[in-house]
Specification:
By secondary structure, the protein is α/β, with parallel strands linked by helices. The protein contains two helices and eight strands; from the N terminus they run βαββββαβββ. The protein has helices at about 25-35, 85-90, and strands at about 15-20, 40, 50, 60-65, 75-80, 95-105, 105-110, 120-125. The strands form two sheets. The protein has a four-stranded mixed β-sheet with strand order 1-4-3-2, with helices on one face. It has a four-stranded mixed β-sheet with strand order 5-8-7-6, covered by helices on one side. The longest helix has 12 residues, at about 25-35. The chain has two domains: about 15-65, 2,3-Dihydroxybiphenyl 1,2-Dioxygenase, domain 1; about 75-130, Roll (2,3-Dihydroxybiphenyl 1,2-Dioxygenase, domain 1), CATH 3.10.180.
Length: about 130
């Protein structure tokens, strides 16, 4: 009897881009580029604008006719060296503060960008993985 060998190739996905729907892709991309020290690398006539971040995945902003309703199922979790200073800076740049959040050993602030997209900001020294 002959032996059958089956080889399974491991598939790995990597995060390349996070895409956010918006009514004004160019304006929101420029806002996020300014907040993250990123740069707009593709504009595609304003319908799909890509921001290259200094590290990590790219952010993309896709123009839609109307924003999705209800609670977002995806949001960005951002890290800052000084949480309170970064929250103040973001508010000054046009973001809005939704709520301060806390659990044992971890503190963060939930915010919204000028388009109403929710994101969180936490301090970098906090261990989110336990």
């Amino acid at each position: 009897m002959s032996e059958v060998v089956v080889t399974v190739l491991a598939m790995a996905l990597t995060l390349g881009m996070v895409t956010i729907d918006t009514l004004d892709a160019r304006a929101l991309a420029q806002w996020w580029a300014a907040q993250t020290a990123g740069r707009v690398v593709q504009e595609n006539d304003g319908w799909f604008v890509v921001v290259q971040l200094p590290t990590g995945p790219m952010l993309a902003f896709q123009k839609v006719d109307q924003p999705a309703g209800g609670k977002a199922r995806l949001h960005l979790d951002l890290v800052a060296s000084d949480l309170d200073a970064e929250v103040a800076r973001l508010i000054g740049a046009g973001a809005s503060k939704i709520a301060d959040q806390e659990m044992p050993g971890f503190r963060w602030t939930t915010m919204a960008d000028p388009d109403g997209n929710v994101f969180d900001v936490s301090g970098e020294a906090q261990d989110v993985l336990g």
